[in-house]
């Protein structure tokens, strides 16, 4: 299946300037698995999204077809064909 | 001959760089470099020519990274991959880098990094990629180390000036640890250092050591600013004795040794842990010229009776010029510089974010 990852502007330099990335994933792949595939292509992007344990960074939000993944199953959320993953930094800092 | 002096100022919101070509009379500033990131650690590696600047940038959203610059901050490079990270099986993640310490000239490509959570990393490629020093991470005491007010971090790394097998580190809390076998085994080295916040005030470990410094020509003598207390060791850290009697208070964060005169040491006393500003609001650096037996307040050019700020553990430094320059930054975003070893001071920056660290060095002609 194919899913689409949409990056906010601040993340695009870490993905060779891409705003939108298409990922061919196994049917029923999890968000984590999609991020693993992205990591192989764009390691600089991956370390901004996840720490070395693979945990999603606390102040980065991942919207799966509009729903933040932490309201679903987090990184273990399974994706459907054509799913859109929007990655947006959360409101944080001071 | 005109020297080029570089002063790096890490703050809670970015890095500023200042250069001087007129014996530190005037400074040209650039910055903020990476204004979103906090900069707890910066180092100027003068073993290389041109000198390499290393900075630990921590981004609230996107995590930490160590970046390097070989052109005095004009351009920066950082690895795409996680070059400073805990290995699998540790179940830990680097939150920020608290210390970057080039090793001695005997190991020209070795750089150490101290991190939060408390761990030591070692680079053998000039600070580009790092490996966890397992001997310290696997130390049986580690489960007892607890966070200090600033987090749970290894904030001080002192590679031995001539023997690469010997490294001294300090952490809050935990105290001082030393290795003499290149990092394989580590011994707690806190004998004589008080920990008034623990039931046993003189434990083997668990102290909240704030900073340790040494003169490279006198490797076995160490100076230590504790929480609370100011100490000296004459046996490489095996034992410590107080040198705080002549200070107005024994709390503080930084301790800095003169680059050339081995008996000269600087401190910035604060009233106490619950009153983190200098006595009576007097901004005063204290200098000892006899290894801590006596101390002299240095205040010429510094604000008196109206300075309700603090100087953090890495926010004071010296350069390597003659006479030595001394620098410190405050939590209120001011930077003061002395080019006469502390006799007189001038404010060279203000209205910066909280200053977390400063480093200075001669970087060229």
TrEMBL record, chain A:
InterPro entries, A to Z: Beta-grasp_dom_sf (IPR012675), Mopterin_synth/thiamin_S_b (IPR016155), SAMP1_3 (IPR054834), Sulfur_Carrier/Prot_Modifier (IPR052045), ThiS/MoaD-like (IPR003749)
Organism, scientific name: Streptoalloteichus tenebrarius (strain ATCC 17920 / DSM 40477 / JCM 4838 / CBS 697.72 / NBRC 16177 / NCIMB 11028 / NRRL B-12390 / A12253. 1 / ISP 5477)
NCBIfam families, alphabetized: SAMP1
The organism's place on the tree of life at top rank: Bacteria
Protein's name according to its UniProt entry: Molybdopterin synthase subunit MoaD
Lineage of origin: Bacteria, Bacillati, Actinomycetota, Actinomycetes, Pseudonocardiales
Pfam families found in the cross-reference section: ThiS
PANTHER family hit by this protein: SULFUR CARRIER PROTEIN CYSO, SULFUR CARRIER PROTEIN SLR0821-RELATED
TrEMBL record, chain B:
Gene3D superfamilies on file: YVTN repeat-like/Quinoprotein amine dehydrogenase
InterPro entries, per database record: WD40/YVTN_repeat-like_dom_sf (IPR015943), Xyloglucanase_GH74 (IPR052025)
CDD domains: Sialidase_non-viral (cd15482)
Protein name per its UniProtKB record: Glycosyl hydrolase
């Amino acid at each position: 299946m194919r899913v689409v990852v949409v990056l906010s502007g601040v993340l695009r330099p870490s993905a060779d300037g891409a705003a939108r990335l298409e990922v061919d994933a196994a049917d029923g792949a999890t968000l984590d698995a999609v991020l693993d595939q992205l990591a192989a292509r764009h390691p600089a992007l991956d370390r901004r999204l996840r720490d070395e344990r693979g945990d999603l960074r606390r102040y980065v939000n991942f919207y799966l077809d509009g729903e933040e993944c932490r309201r679903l199953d987090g990184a273990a959320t399974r994706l459907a064909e054509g799913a859109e993953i929007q990655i947006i930094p959360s409101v944080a800092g001071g | 001959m005109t020297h080029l002096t570089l002063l790096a100022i890490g703050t809670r919101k970015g890095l500023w760089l200042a250069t001087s070509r007129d014996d530190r009379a005037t400074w040209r500033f650039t910055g903020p470099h990476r204004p979103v990131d906090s900069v707890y650690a910066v180092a100027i590696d003068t073993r290389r020519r041109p000198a390499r600047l290393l900075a630990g940038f921590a981004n609230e959203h996107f995590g930490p990274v160590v970046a390097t610059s070989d052109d005095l901050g004009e351009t920066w490079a950082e690895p795409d991959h996680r070059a400073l990270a805990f290995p699998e099986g540790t179940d830990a993640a680097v939150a920020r880098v608290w210390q970057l310490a080039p090793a001695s000239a005997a190991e020209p490509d070795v750089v150490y990094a101290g991190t939060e959570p408390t761990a030591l990393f070692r680079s053998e490629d000039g600070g580009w990629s790092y490996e966890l020093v397992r001997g310290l991470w696997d130390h049986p005491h580690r489960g007892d180390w607890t966070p200090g007010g600033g987090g749970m971090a290894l904030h001080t790394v002192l590679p031995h000036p001539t023997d690469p097998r010997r490294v001294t580190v300090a952490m809050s809390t935990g105290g001082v640890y030393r290795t003499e076998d290149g990092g394989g085994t580590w011994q707690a080295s806190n004998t004589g250092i008080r920990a008034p916040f623990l039931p046993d005030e003189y434990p083997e470990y668990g102290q909240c050591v704030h900073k340790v410094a040494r003169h490279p020509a006198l490797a076995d003598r160490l100076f230590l600013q504790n929480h609370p207390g100011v100490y000296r060791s004459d046996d490489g850290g095996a034992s410590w004795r107080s040198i705080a009697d002549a200070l107005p208070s024994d709390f503080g964060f930084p301790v800095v040794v003169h680059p050339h005169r081995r008996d000269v040491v600087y401190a910035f006393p604060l009233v106490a842990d619950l009153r983190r500003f200098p006595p009576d609001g007097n901004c005063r650096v204290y200098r000892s010229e006899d290894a801590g037996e006596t101390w002299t307040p240095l205040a010429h050019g510094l604000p008196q009776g109206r300075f309700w700020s603090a100087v953090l553990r890495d926010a004071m430094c010296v350069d390597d010029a003659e006479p030595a320059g001394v620098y410190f930054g405050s939590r209120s975003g001011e930077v003061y510089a002395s080019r006469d070893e502390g006799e007189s001071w001038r404010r060279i920056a203000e209205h910066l974010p909280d200053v977390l660290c400063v480093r200075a060095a001669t970087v060229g002609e």
